[in-house]
Amino acid sequence: MTHYFISDLHLDAQHPKMSNGFFGFVKNLQESGSAKAESLYILGDFFETWVGDDYQDSLSEQIKCSLKELSDSGVAVYFMHGNRDFLMGEQFANQCGGTLLDEDTIITVGNDRALLMHGDSLCTRDIEYMKARQLLRNPLWQADFLSKPMDARVAFAAQARSESQSSQQMKANDIMDVTQADVDSEMTKAGVVRLIHGHTHRPNTHSWEFNGEARERIVLGDWSDSKGWMIRWEAGELPSLESFEF
Ligand code: MN
To answer: How many angstroms is it from 83 CA to the middle of ligand 1?
Structure first.
């Protein structure tokens, strides 16, 4: 029984090749046979934007169908919010037959444990973003936003996206990465030696020692029109970060 982890697909209607790559990935999990998939963890920024579960387009309908089929076939589907799709709600998760996870979730695989995060909360040197995050994750702000008409929400999301793109170009490269001290304190708090996250688009497996304890941080990669990233983890084995072509 194998657990799969993906993040940062940033799916939208403008990237049909990537969406098709995702549908192919889901089919493979469904037909995984002897290497049977037990669960699929989607660790945030699954969508490029999410303006509410009442938003409808053909891509989101196809995604719901694809994930519902997967969950009906016996694979547990889990979602974690990213900084783009933090408004993804219970309704969407239910329609996919999936479950929304808290932003810091500890899982057990065999005798091992891991902390799962999207990763944006670890990029604490990006002070401007951390401030915006506080507002965007406020339930009152979210309720107010979700009460607005759909076209206003779509316009706001497009604006926020272009502002974030231009401000990111101005930021030093290392500001956009995790802060090691925060990684260590989150891991200590969770009592884990392994952390899995995405967000930074810097796929890698980092190993280091903290107070004599061997620790590992596995970072998922972002998907493109031709390539995806995943972590495959079977109980009793080490998790492995892999990329694959569509
Ligand atoms: Mn992100």
So the answer is: 5
